[in-house]
Each structure stands twice: as C-alpha cells, then as structure tokens.
Amino acid sequence: MLLRLGVLVGALSFMLSLALAAPSVTWFDSGELALAAGTLGVAHPPGQPAYLSLAALAALLPVGELSFRLTVFSAFCLALAAALAAVITARLVEPCTSAVPSLSCAGLLAGGLLACSPAAVAQSVRPELYALALLLLLGAVNALLQAGARGPALAALCLAVCGAVHYAVLVAAVPGLLVLAWRAGPASLRRGALAGLLLLVPALGQYLWLPLRSLQGPVLDFAHPQTLERFWWSVSAGPYRRSFEMEDGQLLANLVAHIDLAFAHLGPLALLLAALGSFYLARRDPRMVLAGFLLLVGGVLPSLFQGVFSGANPDLWGYLLLPLAVLACAAGLGAQLVVASAARLRPPLLRALMFGLVCAVLLGPLLSSLERVDASARRAPARLADALLDGAPAGGVVALAGDSWLYPSLYQRYWNGRRADLELVPLLQLDKPIFDALQARGVALDLPSLSGRDALRAVPARVRQEHELRLLARSLRWRPLLVNEVFVPPELEYSKQAEGLLYRLVSGSSSAVAPRMPAAETGLRLEQLLWRQALAPMVAAVDYAEDPTAHRVLARRYLARTAYLGSRGLADAARQTLARGLSLQPDPGALIHLARYRLEQDSSEFLESSAGLAEGAWMNLLGQGDELGALGLLDVSIARSEGSSKRELRAVRGAVHLMTGQLERAAGDASAVLEERPFHSLGNLLRDRLYVLGNRSLQTSPLLGPRTEPNPGGVPGG
Fold it and tell me: Cα–chain-centroid distance for residue 53?
C-alpha cells in the first residue's frame, strides 16, 4: 500500500511540475546552473559539485533543450521527495491506526501538500538544486526511521551527497537528524557517527572538482578557485557573506515574513492540522516531535538571518523546503486524527470526508502555484538576453551585473552560440584570471596597461571590481567594452554612450573622456529601433503579462535609461523613453509610474546635463587612478559651487568615495543628491552599488502623488 501511495503522489507531483515547467532558460541562477552542467563548468560559490555532476547526467536526456532537461531533473527530484514525504507520514501514522483510509489520507495529504506548495513547485519548474537537496534530506530521514541497522549508514551517504549540493541546508538539518538517530537507540547513533566519519573525506573530496576543473579553463569559471585562497573563498561562499549583515529590527521583520510565507504556501487549514498532529504525536513520541521541531527551526535559520530577505524571491524559498516538508507531514498526522474520529461513519461518507479534507487543504496551495510559479510559457529571459546580445557592437567585450541580465545572456551566448563574436564576463568575477581567460580566447590586451595591477592590492577588496573594470577599459585593444546599468568609475560614467540595451565605455585622456553628445534624433531613432526589433515582440508575447520579474527588469532599465538621457540633455528622448517604460510595468504603483508623476510636476527632473563635468581637473586625476587627489579638488569645487552644479559634483564625490572604500561618506553624498533628485542617474547607480556592498539604509526619498495607470497602447511615434 505504501508503495502505491508513493507512486501516486510522485506521479501527480511530476505531472504538475512538467505542466508548469519553463521551456527554456529562466530568471535567477537557472541559466548559470544549466550552462555549468552542460559545459562542466564551475558555478557560483560554494560550487555545488554534486548537483552539477548529477545535472550533467540529466543533460543527456534526449528531450528539449539543455535548460528544459535540467528542469525535468528538478521535477523528478521533487516528485521523489513528495513521495517520500507521503511514505514517511503514512509510516508515522501506522502505529496509531490500522485503518487504511487513515494511512492513505495522511500520506496523500502530506505528499500532496509538499508537491503543490508554490515554494516547492518553484524549484521544480526550472534548473535548480533545492529539490535535490530536499530529496536527499528526506532520504536520510526515511533511512533513520525505517532502514533498521543499515539506516545510519544510508542516512550518512545521503548527507554526504547533500553536503556537496547545498551544505547550508545540511548543517541546518543536522541537530534534528541526530535526535532521530538517538530516538532509534545509542547503537544507531554510534553507527551513524562512524559512517559519517568514514564518509567525511570522500564527501569533502567532492569539492576538489572545483580547482581541477578550473585549471582546464571552462567557459564558466566562477571565482577561479585555483589557489588555496580562492578555493576557500569559493567554498565558504565569500561573495554572499554580506547577505547576513542585518540591520536593527530586521530579525523580527524576517520572522514575521516567514510566518506569512507559511500561511501563503501551505494555507491556514494545513497549519491548523499541523498543530493538531504535532500535539497528538507529542503525547505518543516526544523525541519524534523534538526531531521535527529541530528540523523545522534549523531549516528556517539560513533564511531567517538573511539581511536581504525577500518573501517574493523563489531562491530564498528553496531554503525553506525542509521546514515546509516537516509541516506537511505534521498536517498529514492531523488529517489522520480527523479521519480516525469519523471512523464510525459508513464507508461512502468516510471516503467523501477524506476526499473533501484533502481537496480543502490542497486547493489553496495548488491555485497559488498555478498563479505564481507557472513558467510554461516563460520565454522573456531568453528574448531579453537575445536583445542584449544582438544590440551589442561587433567584437565587443560585455561586462554584466545582475542575475536577470547576466545568467540568461551567458546561457544564450555560450550554450546556444548566439553572437559568437562577443565575450561576456561577470562584473563580480573581474580579476586577473578573467584577463588571462580573455587572452586565451583571443582577446588582445595592452600588456603595459596591465602593469599597474600590483597597485590594486592596496584597494579594499569590496570595491576592487570597479578598479578592475577601469583596468579592463584601458587595456582592451580594438574591441569595445560595454556594460549594463551598473556603477562604473566616474571618468567612465561620463564617457559612456548608449548602444542597444548596453553602454559603451571610453577610456583615455580628459579630451577623449569628454562625453560625446549624440543628437536627440539619433537617440530617439536607436530607442525606437530597439523597441520594434527586440522588445515589442517580447512584450506582445503571451508570457510577458504573467511575468512580474520581466516587468521589474525592463521598467528598471527604462527608468535608468531615462535618467541617463536626461543627464545628457536629451529631453525629448528622455520623455519618450519614460513613456515607453510605463507601458512595460502594469503595476500602477511601481516606481516608474511615480517617476512619470514627478516629471509632470517638475520638467527639469531628468534634465541635469553633465556636459561640463568632464572638463574638471579632477577628471584627469581619476583617469590616472589618483582618487585622493581628485577628492581634494572636488572638495574645493563643491565649496565654490551652488545649485545643480554642486549637486552634480557631490554625486561624483560620492562615487570617488566608493572607489576608495569610504562607504559611509559615499552614502552621505548619495543621500544628499537623491534627496533633491530621486531619479538622478549617477546617484541611483551609486545607491544600488552601496546596497550590494551592505549599506541598505540608503533609500530614495518618498514620492507623493497620485498613481497613474499604465499606457496599454504604447507611446506615440514608436
């Protein structure tokens, strides 16, 4: 009976996931993980070697393209995890009752609840590792509960693999798993500890894949872990440590957000049943309840202490799969109590009660998944990546920031082979190995320009990216350097020129750095061409209306491009660009709609021409890398200036402060600029970079005014 129950739940879960699965590359990390699996590359820290090894095997499936094959693998992992949850729950119920209806109802409800939860389904409709991690953890739980003397060894084997999939969720689960082993007796605990020690070396050895593969120069080589220092930086997830820097009061806010997520992803009826089931089990098996409580609390901790926690981020939902599984199993126990209390009913009535209870619990999460995580028609990430690549000049080197821009573009470029003349590099990875990799791929670099690299050792590590970008701009020969909406050194900021979805950076002396203002007609023509050829077809597609991530990504781009055009004095182009962006964001309360209201109230909002800034002597010093000298000249210039000139100089000074690692001073200047002009081009880029570096207190000033409805018909003249 348990086998049939598991097969039924697993099959239903798999069919639901496939029905909602993304046909191609998706947002967030999925493009990177798919590319890493397909090319045997090194993914972002901590590397995920076990996931990538198994995903590389899944990539051999003869169905669809690479990204879809890995999505099928994710769906398969969640289906097995849901089946295990159903079987575990039914086995917990079995000592309490011999009634088949109770067993079936408890298992079906627990497995179905996990399979229908939006948090779980979101990990099964795209290439992602969290479903595999959950499967391994539930496999360990099942082994400890049912495998007898072999259970501890089997559990240790599951955990050894899980540690190389996502060790944070493994560490969080260890206390609860130890209690489960203790529940089975001291001998079981000793066998588990011995098996863990024996598997420790091969478990850790899985991470040796990272430096060994990196030495082969794969296309995707995140962090280049070829030295002991870089290997540790990668394995210890160095780039993401700042995610756990919390502000005052944020822990309580995160706790409330987690409670909201539990209600949103499971529903109040399921939580009520979970409380009932936990209370019932506590009277029969206190150690089992303690283990479940530790699995629940431990599983929440990695996301509870996130300084950048967002309840709408499906990547963060992945951390919570084990706690959701625990609650789902507890809800199954609660359902058993309800069915058992009605055991005197006639069989038809009892079956109707079971059916109604299961439907009542599962309907809410199922409808929520259909509404929130349906990716079956989602092609916007691939279309946006194609538009970015197609709009870049021939032979360009493109340095990208932001997962939504970077990972789909990497996938389209290096797996699907679009625009083979381009080289893409992640801004976060800019370092000597990137320069070496570019040279190995035939990108000519001016070696004398690289001779000053040793001086970068004195630069604070957190702001070294900007200095490396400056070095790359100086050293490139015959190839244009392009970036997306991202903070760059001030002398490059005032030299950049819009090209498609990107900006070309120009490096050189002050005369070469001076911004070359394109004609207003040229700016409008390029924007309209981009719209007709690339973005309009994407927006007209069926999937765009149901893709809030695409709305945010494009609206942010249009708002930033509007500010850029305004800073270049192109008033008509700025207004037309803003109007176009309004048609891309259906939420009338989004920032871009507030920008429209602000512009209507103050027509100078986006017209802060920076033409004269590049003529300052401080620009020469920045071009030479002398930030301290430039700061001295900027202080004098600011003291002598007033009005808009003073504001522009303060924005530049804030950027220079960031280049020297003085983040508090940079935040002070950015705050003063944004207080006067919330949509200031450099001010917003500076604010975004400070946010990434850990300063999350800097916010745009509140905007007052009526919400404006999106323009469904686009913009005239487009």
Answer: 21
Contacts 24+ apart (CB under 8 A), 52-59: 52/209, 53/206, 53/209, 54/132, 55/127
Please provide the size of the chain in residues. Answer: 718
pTM for the model: 0.86
278-283 long-range contacts (CB < 8 A, ≥24 apart) are 278/330, 278/333, 278/334, 280/333, 280/334, 280/337, 281/92, 281/330, 281/333
What are the extents of the domains in the chain? 2-372, 380-513, 613-676
* DSSP class of 221: B
Amino acid (one-letter) located at 448: P
Interaxial angle between packed helices 643-659 and 663-676, expressed in degrees from 0 to 180 and rounded to the nearest 10:
150
| Distance (Å, whole) CA 320 – CA 715 | 43
Burial class (CB in 10 A: 0-12, 13-18, 19+), 197: exposed
Pairing of the two strands 397-400 and 481-483: parallel
Phi, psi (degrees; rounded to nearest 5) at 468: -65, -35
How many CB atoms are closer than 10 A to CB 147?
16
Q: 629: buried, middle or exposed (CB in 10 Å: 19+, 13-18, 0-12)? A: middle
557 in Cβ contact with 501 (< 8 Å): yes
Confidence of residue 512 (pLDDT cuts 50, 70, 90): very low
Q: For 260-274, 406-420, 438-452, which range has the lowest pLDDT when averaged over its residues? A: 438-452
pLDDT one-digit tens code per residue, 214-236: 888 888 888 888 888 888 888 88
Buried-exposed string 376-410: b where 16+ CB fall within 10 A, e elsewhere: ebbbbbbbbbbbbbbbbeeebbbbbbbbbbbbbbb
d(CA 190, CA 196): 10
Checking DSSP bridges between strand 423-426 and strand 497-499, what pairing results, if any?
A: unpaired
CB 104 within 8 A of CB 354: yes
Phi, psi of 432, rounded to the nearest 5 degrees: -55, -45
Q: How far apart are CA 303 and CA 604, in angstroms?
A: 43
Q: How far, in Å, CA of 127 to CA of 473, rounded?
A: 34
Q: Under DSSP, is residue 617 helix (H, G, I), strand (E, B) or coil? A: helix
- In sequence order, the β-bridge partners of residue 497 are 504
- Where is average pLDDT lowest: 157-171, 390-404, 463-477, 528-542? 528-542
| Half-sphere exposure for 358 (CA within 13 Å, toward CB) | 25
Residue 645 CA to residue 639 CA, distance in Å, equals 11
Q: How far is CA 13 from CA 103, 116, 165, 554, in A?
A: 19, 7, 22, 33
Q: Distance between CA 546 and CA 371 in Å, rounded?
A: 9
Task: With residue 539 as reference, give the H or E element that holds it.
Answer: helix 536-540
Beta strand spans in 500-646 (E):
502-505
Q: Determine whether domain 613-676 maps to CATH 2.40.50.
A: no
pLDDT in tens, 25-54: 998 888 999 999 999 988 888 888 999 999
Report CA dihedral (607, 608, 611, 613) to the nearest 10 degrees.
-170
DSSP string of 237-251?
TGGGGGGG-PPTTHH
Count the alpha carbons within 13 Å of 582 in the hemisphere toward its beta carbon: 23
Residue 139's nearest CA partner among 108, 180, 106 is 180
Among residues 184, 308, 178, 190, the alpha carbon closest in space to that of 243 is found at: 308
Tell me whether the omega of the peptide bond preceding residue 302 falls within 30 degrees of 0, making it cis.
Answer: no
Q: Could you please report the per-residue DSSP string of 98-137? A: --HHHHHHHHHHHHHHHHH-HHHHHHHSSS-SHHHHHHHH
- CB of 321 closer than 8 Å to CB of 78: no
What would the two tokens of residue 198 be?
């024996």
First vs last C-alpha separation in the chain: 63
Return d(Cα 607, Cα 613) in angstroms, integer: 15
- Give the side-chain half-sphere CA count within 13 A for 217: 9
Q: Provide the 3-class DSSP secondary structure of residue 718.
A: coil
Q: What is the pLDDT of residue 508?
A: 54
Kindly give, in sequence order, each residue whose CB lies less than 8 Å from that of residue 394, ignoring residues fewer than 6 positions away.
421
